[in-house]
Amino acid sequence: MTGGLLCIGEMLIDFTPISGMTGSYTANPGGAPANVAVSAARNGIRAGFTGKLGNDDFGKMLEATLKKDKVEILVPELTDEATTTLAFVTLNENGDRSFTFARKPGADMLLDISDMEKIDFSEWDMIHAGSVSQSGSPEGDAVLWAIKKAKELGKLISFDINYRGAIWTREECLKEVEKLIDYVDLLKISDEEADFAGGTENIPQFMKKHGISVVVLTKGKDGADIYYLKDGTDISENEDVVKKLNIPSVKVDAIDTTGAGDAYWGGFLSYLLRQNIRSKEELTPAVLENAGRYGAASGGICVTRFGGIPALPYLDEIEESLSK
Asked: pTM to 2 decimals?
C-alpha cells in the first residue's frame, strides 16, 4: 500500500483535568504529530507515525492507541533509555490550555537518524512534523534528516510551528525552525506564533523568502487565514503573488482546546489528500478554501470534547457538521 500521510515526532500522555474534580487528571493519548496521524486515519487516509515511545505502561498505552486507529507504527521498538513523555494540561475558564512537561529526557527525544534510515519515504505522499521534535537531541537531527530526504523525493512537506514555552524559549525554537523552513510547502502557525514569521503583516514576504506555498494562520474562534501563492507564480519574480482567504470558525461551546489545532490541521491535510493533491502546483484557491472549511469543522468538533486524541472526530462527523 502506498500514499498517505506520514507524521514524525512526539507522542505523549496528556494528563487532562477532570471536570469538577480539582487537582484530578485523566491520562489521554496526545502529542501533535500523533494527533495529526490519528486525525488522518479517522478521515480514511492511510497514516503512519514515526516516533519513540518508552517501554513502560504509558508507552504501551500509546502503542495500542495507534493500533486501534490503524495508524502504521514505523518505529515499533519501545525504548528502555527514557520514560514516555508526560504533559500536564491546565485549562482556564475559556477552555484554553497551558502545559507542564515531564521530559528530561522523554522517550520521544531519542528518535535517531538510524530509525529514519529504515523508512521508505517514497511510499508516502506527504510528510508532517512539528517544532517540538526540534527541541531535543538526537530527535531534532533525525526529523531534519527525514524532511530533507522526503523533499529530495518530491514529497509535500507539512510543518507546524507548535511553540511550547514550557519546553524552550522562542529564540531557541526559531533557531531550530530556520534549519528546515526552506523545505516546507505547507506551514501551520497560530496567531500566538505569528512573530515566527515576522508578524502577520510579514507573512507574504516570509513565504517568498522561504519558498512556502501555503501558510495557514489559525485564530481560534476567529477562524483562520490561508495565505497561498497565486497560480503557481515564480515567487522570485513577482512581488504580488501571495493571496489570502479567511475561513470562519464553526461556532460551538468550547470546553477543551487541547488538540484543536491538530484536529484542524489533520482535517485540512486529509482533505487535500482525499482530493488527490500530490504537488504544490495543484493547490488551487478552491481546494484550499474547501480544505480550510473542512479543517474548521474538524477543529470545531474537537473543542466540544475533552482530551487530545479522544476528542478527534471521524469522517462522518465532519461531513455531518459541514452539511448543516
From this structure: 0.94
